[in-house]
Amino acid sequence: MRAVAVFPTEKKVSLIDDHPEPALESPTSVKLKVLEVGICGTDREICTFEYGEAPPQSPYFVLGHESFCEVIEVGSGVQQIKPGDLAVLSVRRPCPEMCPACRVGRQDFCYTGDFKERGIKKLHGFMTELIVEDQQYVYTVPRELREIAVLTEPLTVTEKAFDQLSTVRERMPWHDRASNSSTRNALILGAGPVGLLAAMKMVLEGFNTFVYSLGKGDAAKEKIMKDIGVTFIPAEDVKASDVLSPCGGHVDVVIEALGAATVSFEVLQALEQNAIFIFTGVPGRKAPIPFDLSDLMKELVLKNQLVFGTVNAGPAHFRSSIADLERFNVRFPQAVRGLITARIAMEQFAGPIDQPVGIKNVIQVN
Ligand code: BGC
Ligand code: ZN
């Protein structure tokens, strides 16, 4: 089969045509035809060989972790999934030690670090014609999401962040989920796919939402933000340390989707009482950045601030991501479609990896 393969030792990425076709492995296996695979920053890091690991004994691994597929065959023990169903797959698989997190299917919280990730770490990914997966990692998607279902995985980042935020907000004794009484203003850092999906989610959850990012004059992004009703704060005009004032002087929660440390910490330092700051980006390795840590520590304590990082997602987040895409599809049909700015044939995979265009680039596999 054709596949986009990463050869970490040879340091090359190429389209191969002899990747073996997978067969059903057990009664609970599902075979899927891959329709689309999204490309993100992680894929770019993998293709510059800064990240990523092939399965043991294999000279290469197939790229791709943001999937959208059609089921073509199911094992005898599969009841809920049928051929013809549309589906997306999760990314992470449990560690061999079966740590307490992996044991309960929450390998997104794996303790050992020996988890595997399809298309990233020790497992082949989805940029190939056919794949097989156990039913527990396959999530069916309603037909009406056909054009946007490839956004499911990037949205799970925010779904997991939001789930944890919901728990954390309960620390305020007066917090009432229904009226969103203790957290009202949300600031998203970054207007890439994760940032804009996070913005849509926060709007849906009733937050006054602001997006701080470079990109002034990017008509497509500005239109999406206008359509969903968020305020764009261009980083070209507003310094990170001044970002609170265009947010009405107060931000309750920040979702970082930028992967840039300096801006993030400048925003963190500008925050006020009880603010929650959630990191989702992975910064590229850079030279050390000087920073006044004593001041940061003092502010965190004296202002009851909370900072946490989050990676990957659990089964509930895949389900809520699909449910939220359905809500986006009703509420902002144009804007959510606008996130996918290029669909590219598998033969042309190198283009969007070397030179991403627009917001989300998607490889059309079948
Ligand atoms: C993926 C996650 C993965 C993380 C770290 C992200 O791009 O979306 O599923 O856990 O990279 O490898
Ligand atoms: Zn990704």
Provide a descriptive summary of the structure in words.
With 366 residues, the protein is α/β, with parallel strands linked by helices. The chain has two domains: 3-148 and 339-364, Quinone Oxidoreductase, Chain A, domain 1 (Alpha-Beta Complex); 155-309, NAD(P)-binding Rossmann-like Domain (Rossmann fold). It is built from ten helices and 19 strands. Strand 1 (3-7) and strand 2 form a beta hairpin. The protein is globular and about 55 Å long. The model has no long low-confidence stretch (mean pLDDT 96). Bound molecules: beta-D-glucopyranose and zinc ion.
Summarize the SSE layout with pairings.
Layout: E1 3-7, E2 12-16, E3 29-39, H1 41-47, E4 61-62, E5 66-74, E6 86-89, E7 92-93, H2 100-103, E8 116-118, E9 122-123, E10 130-134, E11 138-141, H3 152-169, E12 185-189, H4 193-204, E13 208-213, H5 219-228, E14 231-234, E15 253-256, H6 261-270, E16 276-279, H7 293-302, E17 306-309, H8 315-331, H9 333-338, E18 340-345, H10 350-354, E19 360-364
Parallel strand pairs: 8-9, 12-13, 12-15, 13-14, 15-16, 16-17, 18-19
Antiparallel strand pairs: 1-2, 1-4, 3-5, 3-10, 3-19, 5-6, 6-11, 7-8
Helix pairs in contact: 3-4, 3-8
Bound molecules: beta-D-glucopyranose and zinc ion (ZN).
The CATH architecture of the largest domain can be given as Alpha-Beta Complex
The domain tally reads 2
Which blocks of ≥5 consecutive residues have pLDDT under 50? none
Discrete helix count: 10
CATH fold-level name of the largest domain: Quinone Oxidoreductase, Chain A, domain 1
Q: What would you call the shape?
A: globular
* β-sheet strand percentage: 15-25%
What's the CATH first level of the largest domain? Alpha Beta
